[in-house]
């Protein structure tokens, strides 16, 4: 049996998920920074609800990455792992090393937790995702890159509906146990501060990786089912968004954007339904050969690198335009977001081209 199969590079639903996740995470960054300023009650609620609406980024990234990787490498064996890591080293690990260094040395004020004060603490901040507010995503997602042989194996054994159902049942049980453990011991438990790094541990998002792998194996029948039940998806989205909104309202003012966790049943349901809606949109666009398909594919190539860069550009843009926030809050937020998005993708493309020259 061949160790791997490389399929033609073309747009897929993973591309749509990666672009949606990157676009949303940049908005999360802008809203988080904006909410540190004094706002009217109305503006606070607008920011809080907007943040809740786009809080699907980490699950969507994982689902999208695993979908595309499975689609383009199935049926890879362990012997293909060194070649796979070599490709990911230049695509993901080098940009991660570059931007983490920039944040720690050039913008040390962005560190989360305890700032570094020695070589040892510098190294710890470098790997734990605390170098900048958004880099916890990076620490978490790179774990799935390293675990890829596990998902290759999963894709190879998922050969019929009965096995898929068994895998899904085991995944559901495992996720339920992990969410319960996290809720009791960390989120609402005695280790909320000391065990906070569990929010970036791979088990917290393993379900999305498994689903992304399985969907890549059975994308055609799933596309038909999603098309038949798109109204149910939309209704479910409204209900679950209403539930997460109720949690935000119950917490009251001032708005705290971390009041809902990715590792909560309501948010897990919301994220899954949102992913389903993006997948449904992607299937429709790809089936119709929409003009946006090649654009989405191009953006997806640079989405991860744009995500890494977004806080850097946001800090510079906010320093220039943030002073106008009190005059026109929402227009300033939207403008900062659009410029940050553009600069993030432009720098991702520019740095990639620059590296190619050498």
Automatic annotation (TrEMBL):
GO terms for cellular component: plasma membrane. It is a multi-pass membrane protein. Its main location: membrane. It is found in: Cell membrane. It comes from the Bacteria. Residues 15-346 form the Acyltransferase domain. Belongs to the acyltransferase 3 family. This is Acyltransferase 3 domain-containing protein.
């Amino acid at each position: 049996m061949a160790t791997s199969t490389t399929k033609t590079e073309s747009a897929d639903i993973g591309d749509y998920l990666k672009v949606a996740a990157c676009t949303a995470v940049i908005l999360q960054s802008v809203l988080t920074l904006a909410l540190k300023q004094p706002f009217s009650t109305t503006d606070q609620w607008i920011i809080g609800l907007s943040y809740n609406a786009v809080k699907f980024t980490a699950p969507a990234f994982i689902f999208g990455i695993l979908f595309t990787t499975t689609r383009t490498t199935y049926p890879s064996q362990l012997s293909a792992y060194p070649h796979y890591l070599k490709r990911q080293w230049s695509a993901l690990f080098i940009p991660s090393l570059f931007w983490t260094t920039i944040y720690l040395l050039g913008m040390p004020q962005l560190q989360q937790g305890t700032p570094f004060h020695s070589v040892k603490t510098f190294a710890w901040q470098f790997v734990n995702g605390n170098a900048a507010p958004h880099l916890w995503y990076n620490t978490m997602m790179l774990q799935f890159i390293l675990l890829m042989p596990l998902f290759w194996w999963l894709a190879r054994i998922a050969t019929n509906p009965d096995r898929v159902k068994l895998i899904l049942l085991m995944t559901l049980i495992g996720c339920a146990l992990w969410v319960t453990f996290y809720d009791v011991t960390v989120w609402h438990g005695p280790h909320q501060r000391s065990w906070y790094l569990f929010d970036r541990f791979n088990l917290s998002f393993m379900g999305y990786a498994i689903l992304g792998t399985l969907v890549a194996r059975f994308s055609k029948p799933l596309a038909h089912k999603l098309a038949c039940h798109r109204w149910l998806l939309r209704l479910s989205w409204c209900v679950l968004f209403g539930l997460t909104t109720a949690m935000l309202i119950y917490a009251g003012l001032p708005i705290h954007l971390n009041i809902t966790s990715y590792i909560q049943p309501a948010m897990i349901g919301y994220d899954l339904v949102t992913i389903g809606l993006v997948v449904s949109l992607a299937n429709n666009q790809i089936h119709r050969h929409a003009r946006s398909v090649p654009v989405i594919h191009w953006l997806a190539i640079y989405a991860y690198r744009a995500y890494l860069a977004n806080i850097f550009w946001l800090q510079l843009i906010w320093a220039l335009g943030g002073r106008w926030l009190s005059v026109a809050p929402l227009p300033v937020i939207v403008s900062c977001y659009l410029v940050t998005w553009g600069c993030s993708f432009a720098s991702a493309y520019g740095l990639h081209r620059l590296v190619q020259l050498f």
